[in-house]
Amino acid sequence: MYLHGKQTISQISALTGLSASTIKRRLATIRPGWTQPVVCGEGVVHLDATYFGRNTGVLLALESRSGRLLYMKHIAHEHTRDYEDAVEHIESNGYVIRGIIIDGMSKLFAIFSRYKVQMCQFHMVAIVRRKLTKNPQLEAGRELLDLAYRLKNTGKDAFTQEFKAWKKKWHTFLKEKTTNELTGRTVYTHQRLRSAMTSIATYLPFLFTFEEVGGMPNTNNMIEGTFTDMKKSLRNHPGIREENRKRMINGFLLAYAKLHNAYLTALFLAGLLLSRALLRFKPWDKVKAYCQPPKIP
Fold it and tell me: Are residues 13 and 57 in the same domain?
């Protein structure tokens, strides 16, 4: 009840007829524990973290095709070790990772080099836009931002060629330097433009991995949507203590896992039972004949 809708203390009190103090006391006894899911199979994994305050965050791993929850951990800060722990846990259950989608923590690309890794294209565009602003004053900046916006509709070869052409066109311009009159130090004149260019060059080898792995998305939108739903629930309770926030997150994700993981398990078992029934009661030649379209004379 505490997880769905704007179930404030006053609203629950009016609905149940109980006093606010009684509701608070009963809610305090609810402590949903968390046990990491045990999920077998294979697929593409979304990995990402989000924060609800200065030192309160959550790291999640979701299966791309089904949305099944594979891993969750409360974190204070984002470390590569947390991501490694997530992958190790997922594989320890016998799950085969066909690819990983992340959103730009540069060290992870080297750590997960043995996997097919996709850089989230949405975050790539956001990085470029943050460095160039939404309305770049320089022509070179406007062209690079336009190229970034066309990323989602461009293939690897075409995008790579356009990016190389852009660098060649503005090569001299990008090398311009300015001398600080006070310190005498020489720096690149267009530092933010160069920074945006460097970001694209760094992540370019990972922007089109989805073209090599069937069924792999090019963004982390699935996990971002889950974070959005979670934060909407938390915003209904401003001023919540950190301990209660963690309990609420646990409850939210337990409900999420129950909905997604249990449903898909039941669906799989139903399919298995149906296939066994067909094997038992219909010879395969009759099944094939049944599935064939009628012949038109």
Answer: no
Residue 41 backbone zone (phi > 0: left; psi -120 to 50: alpha; other: beta): left
Structural domain that includes position 73: 32-116+213-292
How sure is the predictor about 79, in pLDDT bands with cuts at 50, 70 and 90? Answer: very high
Q: What is the mean pLDDT of residues 271-286?
A: 52
109 shares its domain with 43: yes
Give the number of domains in the chain. Answer: 3
pLDDT in tens, 133-188: 999 999 999 999 999 999 999 999 999 999 999 999 999 999 999 998 888 899 99
* Cβ neighbours, 10 Å, residue 219: 20
Q: Other CB atoms closer than 10 Å to residue 287's CB: what's the count?
A: 13
Q: Which residues pair with 75 in a beta bridge?
A: 57
- Cα(44)–Cα(30) distance, rounded to whole angstroms? 34
Distances (CA, A) of 281 to 273, 286, 290: 12, 10, 13
Q: Which residues contact 52 (CB under 8 A, 6 or more apart)?
A: 58, 231, 234, 245
Q: Measured between alpha carbons, how far is 69 from 258 in angstroms, rounded to an integer?
A: 9
Tens-place pLDDT, residues 49-67:
998 877 789 999 999 988 8
* 254 and 280 fall within a common domain: yes
Q: Which residue has the tokens 């200065």?
A: 54
CA–CA separation, 297 and 287 (whole Å): 22
- Distances, alpha carbon 10 to alpha carbons 15, 17, 24, 243, in Å: 9, 10, 10, 21
